[in-house]
Amino acid sequence: MLRRRFLQHSALTGSALFFTRRFARRSTAGAQIDILLDEPIGQIEPEVYGHFSEHIGGVIYDGLWVGKDSKIPNVNGFRKDMIDHMRRLQPGSLRWPGGCFADSYNWKDGIGPMESRPRRTNFWANTPFMKKAPDGPTKFEPNHFGTDEFLQFCELIDTKPYLAANARTQGPQDFIDWVEYCNAPADTTTYGDLRVANGRKEAYNVACWGVGNESWGCGGDMIAEDYATEFRRFTSFVPRFDVDLKLVAVGPSDSWNRRDTEWTRRFFTALAERSAVWSNLMNRVDGYSLHFYCSTTGNSSLDYTDEDYYEHLWRADQMEKIITEHWNIIGAFDFDHNIKLYIDEWGAWHAQKTEVHNTHLFGQTSTMRDALIAALTLDTFNRHADKVVMGNIAQLINNLHSLFLAHEDRFVVTPNFYVFEMYKEHQGGMSIPIKIDAPSTGSERDLWGLAGSASQKGKEIFLTVVNPHLSERMDTVVRLSGARIKSAEATIFTQDNVRAYNNLDHPNGVAPPEMTQTSVTGGELTHSYAPASVTALKLQLE
Ligand code: AHR
To answer: What is the H or E stretch that residue 96 is in?
Structure first.
């Protein structure tokens, strides 16, 4: 108790004495954050705090699904630890079954009695990594985890499902059949009845459907005009069953140094050309998907220099440009901006060196660097709440930028998990602009000194901020425009070493965030942001 009090005091006043090394580094000249209450941006959709689970490496088999007969604690075959931790996060959405896998997937393989479901070669089986892996479900898909299992899992963790339809090896009829299987009420269609026969009477009412995935690459090597044709075919008629369907078109995949704005321009031009002589096809596009992997720097996810760290954060920060550039292009076709952005794959993608098992393709061990990338990205989404309505970090477990690592009966959370848990308060809040005045890092790749986002729910403001500086604290005055702060509480996530990580052999390397009380003077708050930290401040208005 005493220690906690001491931390509160020191962390929040920038005092010279600190209890642990984590809170003990030099502080820079002052910074200021103004929260502009009168200029709301838009509601932060809970789906922005979403996840992605593909049939790839150890995500589904070994990660999410262990099977009903497993000795590993499970609920109907789903890893119990996953259910418990996902419930803690209150996730807004979960995307499935891919990724590239989606465009090779026959959903009809994954329904009905498990013992009679076919086995297929997994899309990823030919990659060099998987070639060296033993034969098993990650190479030869047993279809034990199919549509009913996925949708049950979504219900167990209370999240919105987001399905990706196969637009490469299947066509519109399979898509329609799948929608009927999920959404047709009992006694209306054959596929609805098949669902009932498989044990599920109530329709699932799945609203979000992606029409393909990365159709310019693994989803069919199409050019934008080809994809526009496919999109038109897939969306001419889709059975609705009173569900407010959201149909999501495939957009480009951007990297930190390349933005494929041509794909966006050409896709919408192709739709617009047809719209001119037929009907407004912009109405068919509810969402436009963007993928952004901010790549890697350094030798591995664990081994990087300080400059690599700053460079990587800077790369991740390019998300902002990606959002605004594509948004502006779409605006030339969709004047009222009815089409929203679905950033349905994002995250860091490190070199393959730190997997915890040889079936975990793209399995990487995350450090605090990844946690800061997750935080600054979620802040970016919040600041663009009028544009971004879905976000899915890639991928949930045993993969890129994961929240969890698991193998057999071992399970651990990564630093990314804590960021999502801290940030969940933003869901459903009204995004409010913030103005930050802070000295930049001064590193070779110069980065802002502080960045973040704020949201409001009634008399409560939730402010999340990243201090990227590796060694310096940032003493900051936080103020509200036209209002006063009555009280505040802080949650601080930082470590002695930014390279801190958890994995299965090293489960306690990362100390969880700490919650502290703060003192407010004259309606303002002075907070000292710890080095390489993620901080959430909950402010009560007077
Ligand atoms: O997340 C891994 C892969 O990255 C996905 O399957 C694909 O969509 C992207 O290229």
So the answer is: strand 93-96
Confidence check: pLDDT of 97 > 80: yes
Give the residue whose CA is nearest to atom 2 of ligand 1: 99
Confirm or reject: Cβ of 421 under 6 Å from ligand 1: no
Domains and CATH numbers, the chain: 2-40+432-541 (2.60.40.1180), 46-116+145-429 (3.20.20.80)
Say what percent of the chain tops pLDDT 70.
95
Ligand 1 geometric centre to CA of 100 (Å): 6
Is the minimum distance from the CB of 102 to ligand 1 under 6 angstroms? Answer: no
d(CA 504, CA 365): 10
Residue scoring higher pLDDT (444 or 155): 155
Q: Residue 42's beta-bridge partner residues?
A: 431
Look at residue 28 in the predicted model and tell me its pLDDT. Answer: 58
| Residue 478 alpha carbon to ligand 1 centre in Å | 40
Nearest partner of 456 among 40, 11, 20, judged by Cα: 40
Size of the chain, expressed as the number of residues it contains = 542
479-511: pLDDT as tens digits? 999 999 999 999 999 999 999 999 999 999 999
pLDDT of residue 10 exceeding 80, the answer is: no
Testing ligand 1's pocket by substitution, the residue of 123, 127, 166, 218 carrying the most ligand atoms inside 8 A of its CB is 218
